[in-house]
Design brief:
Layout: E1 2-8, H1 16-27, E2 31-37, H2 43-52, E3 55-60, H3 65-71, E4 74-75, H4 77-82, E5 87-90, E6 96-99, H5 102-113, E7 122-126, H6 130-140, E8 146-150, H7 154-163, H8 165-171, E9 174-177, E10 187-192, E11 210-218, H9 223-234, E12 238-240, H10 243-258, H11 264-275
Helix pairs in contact: 1-10, 5-6, 5-10, 10-11
The structure holds 2'-monophosphoadenosine-5'-diphosphate.
2'-monophosphoadenosine-5'-diphosphate binds next to helix 6.
Domain SDH C-terminal: 242-272
EC number: 1.1.1.25
Pfam families: SDH_C, Shikimate_DH, Shikimate_dh_N
């Protein structure tokens, strides 16, 4: 069967093999999907080895998303904008095509699974690292009213906003960078794309950004999302973790590779039950 993998470091706890195995079973696709631990300084070599062994596609996780974008002969417009790729697909000439499905996965989970439309809404995106960069383009494409990006290191938020200014103008979205201490107003949707919880730090914005009924979304799941979800509940917001984003980004990758859309909502429900 065609061979796929998730490449990262670490990769032992990745749920991607389980998710893609379920997608394959439910769509009758014969494929193999493994974990591939690449050395921190050996991504290019690991990728070349996977290609030489006949690998057809991979998901890329921390810390190789920037290198994956570089390694590809062709990039989707999303990758060009974000500078990061989470999906590689083999082209007929043997070279790699890079895409980034993280933002599509986030948007699909918010709009379809959580049932919250983003058009016309006010969105706060916290963080300006790789995770935040990967989702800003697809968020803009939903034509919200306004997106504010805020980050501990303000210059990175400003750079991310500058990079997306043209797309924002085309979509008619007000796109701004704001300092954490100077956040102006409240938001319909607050998205945490920082790694603050992994450092044991608190939620890096004041609770004034929430209004009753706001959606407070953490791109992480499991224990790493707990502090943010507690904070959301304490302030009357609806919390949601990133498990649905994980499943939906996988579904977008699977559709790119196989030309078949897997039943992602079903697999998300199964995964939630498994982890409960
Ligand atoms: P990732 O690929 O997960 O986005 P990253 O590129 O290292 O990883 O970005 C991590 C993000 O979490 C950044 O926005 C970072 O803020 P800085 O740009 O100021 O470094 C944010 N972050 C990490 N630790 C944090 C903390 N303790 N408080 C607030 N923000 C934090």
């Amino acid at each position: 069967p065609d061979s796929y993998c998730v490449m990262g470091n670490p990769v032992a706890h990745s749920r991607s093999p389980w998710i893609h195995a379920r997608f394959a079973a439910l769509t009758d696709q014969a494929l193999q999907y493994d974990r591939c631990l690449a050395p921190l300084d050996g991504f290019a070599t690991a990728l070349a080895g996977f290609a030489a062994a006949g690998g057809q596609g991979c998901n890329i996780t921390v810390p190789f998303k920037l290198e994956a974008a570089q390694a590809a002969a062709r990039q989707s417009p999303r990758v060009a904008l974000a500078g990061a790729a989470n999906t590689l697909a083999r082209q007929s000439d043997g070279s790699w095509y890079a895409d980034n499905t993280d933002g599509l996965g986030l948007v699909a989970d918010i709009t379809r699974n959580a049932g919250v439309a983003l058009a016309g809404k006010d969105i706060l995106l916290i963080g300006a690292g790789g995770a935040a960069a990967g989702v800003l383009g697809p968020l803009l494409e939903q034509s919200p009213r306004r997106i504010v990006v805020c980050n501990r290191t303000a210059a990175k938020a400003e750079a991310l906003v500058a990079q997306h200014a043209e797309l924002a103008a085309r979509q008619n979205v007000v796109l701004q960078a704001q300092a954490q201490q100077a956040l102006d107003g409240d938001f319909d949707v607050v998205i945490n794309g920082t790694a603050a919880s992994l450092q044991g730090a608190g939620v890096p914005v004041p609770a004034t950004v929430l209004r009753p009924g706001s959606l407070a979304y953490d791109m992480m799941y499991g224990p790493a999302a707990a502090a943010f979800l507690d904070w959301a509940a304490l302030h009357g917001a609806t919390g949601r973790d990133g498990l649905g984003m994980l499943v939906e980004q996988a579904a977008e990758s699977f559709a790119l590779w196989r030309g078949v859309r897997p039943p992602s909502a079903l697999v998300l429900a199964e995964l939630r039950a498994l982890l409960a």
